[in-house]
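Q: what does this look like with magnesium ion bound?
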Amino acid sequence: MIHLDNVSYTFKKGGGVTNVNLDINESEFVFMIGPTGSGKTTMLRLIYMDILPQVGNIVVNKFTSSGMKPKKLPKLRQKIGMVFQNYLLMNDRDLFENVALPLHVLGFPKRQITELVEKSLDEFGLSNKVNHYPHELSGGEQQRACVARAMIKDPDILLADEPTGNLDPVTSFELIKIFEKINKAGTTILMASHNYNLIKGRGHRIIEIQNGSVRS
Amino acid sequence: MIHLDNVSYTFKKGGGVTNVNLDINESEFVFMIGPTGSGKTTMLRLIYMDILPQVGNIVVNKFTSSGMKPKKLPKLRQKIGMVFQNYLLMNDRDLFENVALPLHVLGFPKRQITELVEKSLDEFGLSNKVNHYPHELSGGEQQRACVARAMIKDPDILLADEPTGNLDPVTSFELIKIFEKINKAGTTILMASHNYNLIKGRGHRIIEIQNGSVRS
Amino acid sequence: MDKFSFLIAEGFKNIFRHKLTSSATIFSIFLTLSIVGFLILANQNTNKIIEYLRAKYKIEVFFKEGFTDDELNNAINQIGSIKGVRSTTLISKKDAEKIFKSQFGEDIFDLVGFNPLPASCVVNVEKDGIEKLEIMPIIKRLEMLPVVDEIKYQSGLISRIESYYERFSQIAILCFILSLAISIFVISNTIRLTIFSRKNLIVSFQLIGATRSFVRFPFIVEGLFHGFFGSMLSAIALYFLIDYGNTVIDDIISFKINFDPYLLSATLIFIGIMISTIGSIRATSKYIK
Amino acid sequence: MDKFSFLIAEGFKNIFRHKLTSSATIFSIFLTLSIVGFLILANQNTNKIIEYLRAKYKIEVFFKEGFTDDELNNAINQIGSIKGVRSTTLISKKDAEKIFKSQFGEDIFDLVGFNPLPASCVVNVEKDGIEKLEIMPIIKRLEMLPVVDEIKYQSGLISRIESYYERFSQIAILCFILSLAISIFVISNTIRLTIFSRKNLIVSFQLIGATRSFVRFPFIVEGLFHGFFGSMLSAIALYFLIDYGNTVIDDIISFKINFDPYLLSATLIFIGIMISTIGSIRATSKYIK
Ligand SMILES: Nc1ncnc2c1ncn2[C@@H]1O[C@H](COP(=O)(O)OP(=O)(O)OP(=O)(O)O)[C@@H](O)[C@H]1O
Ligand SMILES: Nc1ncnc2c1ncn2[C@@H]1O[C@H](COP(=O)(O)OP(=O)(O)OP(=O)(O)O)[C@@H](O)[C@H]1O
Ligand SMILES: [Mg+2]
Ligand SMILES: [Mg+2]
């Protein structure tokens, strides 16, 4: 599903990832841990091809990074759900519209969209915030909104960047359980996290990033 | 130092805090915990008077919320260090300039500013990122930058909203130790956090917020 | 189908989601197209000036002695049909007498005992039309008539009038082109700024898998609307300005600004929509990878 | 002192930190003030038109018979000193003879045996100056002279010329005021947008304890600079445009646009700095609590 083949990316000012080899199979649930600044976000950005590797090659869901054209990116991303570390909710529309957006991109019919979004917001405990704009949500609510938006389209791959950073332990745990549920249903998950307590002993593969490289 | 007297604030769309009474003495170190959406950020916003209570009264460092005029706010805030949950770094300037800003506001001489900022960035392990713009920093680096900016002016009061959300356990622990150090030196600290593991058993007062009210 | 109607709806919603930027765009379209419209009208009315000046210009044709009134009238008709001639006025020998009297204060009959003054004809040239008036062909045609003795005209004057007019209308057209160019720049500039303030949104859209056209479509709808609304406002404003202006000016100097409100509106709306839509597309492209 | 120099430096740095918005502001100041400057010059040059028209206007004064040349010359000098009179040309009895010949194609001497034509004088009115020219006071003064027999003038013509001119310069002033107003609006609009894109920064500044004036000062410095730079550019552009335009026009119709580049630059820079600085202050206030 996700293959990184000797991938390097260095930012102009330094930092980034070097010589990363990684294989994630379909329906795997992988945690990525590593100290702050180690390159987790950079790894995820490479996988959803926000940045393209300077060295090496990435294959995600049959899309290859080498020779990737901007025109093909939407096709790739429509199959991927992204939970961004900094949320990236659209502040010009309310929670409902934010979560509905990926379905509009995929051209879902209106009635189905309403149904799916309502169900999803319910699942994440946000039903009473449908009309809130992002700045009218608490930190944890924004984070859950971002998760809801990533999951609404039932993606083949879910990439989650620190999705529990602003959640209390109980809510974090619930989130992991939701992830495990969709993972059982077939979604490949790669989740970056600092919260080792949360993820340890759940039987999922854990990869460790340090200084831009994978340690096994 | 900080007194909340039967304070209530309800947002138009619901949510907020109700009937809060709280006293924090000079040089106290207080943790505020509570599930997501319980009202921690709202409490802090009330204390640095970004919003003024609809009911009740707040006194912070001799400034009273009732009859507070926008003109007096800077005076209040110059004595408070704020770590915002969503960082609020200025994305038009680099890390150095961001951290230096509060000192410019206070009119420090240039040479002293350079000295203080370099020392601070060193303390937070950001010395090699001085020229990075906020979007060129990792999540955890941005968060530490925000802490550095809050502490640079050696404030009387430090309000920190979830300052470890994007930090790994080691860095989080170091941060707490830095906080304890300045607290010893006289700074009053109020820190909102979900990370009960991090704060338990350190001998500090813990207040619990639930549904907008303080539980003791 | 659902996608299409969503995108149209998005475009419309964005107008209200981004009130400040929308109003700024509409406002800048309104302002600049008001100037453009004003200058379109000014251009259409510059010919009034040449009309005024041409009306003051005349050619005098003196006839030979010994022709009958019929023959003279005949000649006058011929003159009247020359291209570029607006009207002719016969000044008979009798009329010439009166003119002499008014000009020199004496009666020529008293002075001389008979009337030596020739019959003549005042030829007024065409005053309408914006093409440059050529006087020499008229003179040539006049000289060919057998009744004509002498022709008096100020060859310098008419060409000076014409060149003044030409300069004037050149300046007017220059102003118009300049203002159109400036409108395009100002409007594009405004649009660039409004879209700049939404660049993060555009990036976010693309990160969640929106295609370029999906991102761009609502901006086009918005641009269309802004263009339509802004130019409509300028057409309305000009209409009332000129309507009011006309009643005021008419009182003072009996002159009315010619204008066709439908044509003016159509022109302005066309220009407005074009600039705004193209500007939106171009400005969006910058942030769409 | 450190704070002050920091704030000045901030203002300058912001110009480069926010290149797009800075260039947009400068560009919009440049564009709109170019129009304003153009119209200032047009206004200054409208008097050329009245000069041209007034130059065509003349009063003819016929003298009584029986005065010596000295007496006539004396009278002519008196006429020349009347307010509103630019020049006088004596047409002696001899000259009148020639005029008769050219006008009627015959020799008055041959016709009558003596010269019955009176001496006269052509009075040209003042053509410079922009005040409305009153013809009646001149006529009154002329009538009081003992040598004067009759006066011929077209009272209608001059007043028509004057009212045409008046209308024209009214329109020019209207255009100027309109364009100045539009400039102010367009520039403020642009500034509003540029500051809108930085509203989060303003809020963040205040959250960390910056006073209003601390937040605002760099914007004022920026506004000053934008105003100065934008208007400077428009002055330079106009200078070259007109310099080039003058050589071209001069070739064709021997006319030169009058202008004082220093005064023009000073005026434009003053207007530019005022609008931009005030606009910045006002727009910032909106986001400063
Ligand atoms: N655009 C950029 N330009 C320059 N350096 C960058 C840029 N983005 C990230 N970096 C640097 O690359 C390194 C890795 O960043 P990354 O965001 O991947 O870390 P991370 O593992 O996600 O950390 P965190 O847990 O704090 O989010 C960091 O040192 C960061 O400063
Ligand atoms: N501007 C606003 N308008 C309306 N509701 C708001 C606004 N800001 C916050 N709320 C609501 O008030 C409640 C408390 O929000 P607050 O941000 O204080 O929570 P919190 O304790 O900080 O949560 P978290 O741990 O997730 O950051 C939430 O339910 C939130 O949706
Ligand atoms: Mg990260
Ligand atoms: Mg919060």
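The mean pLDDT of chain A is 95. The CA atoms of residues 29 and 204 of chain A lie 6 Å apart.
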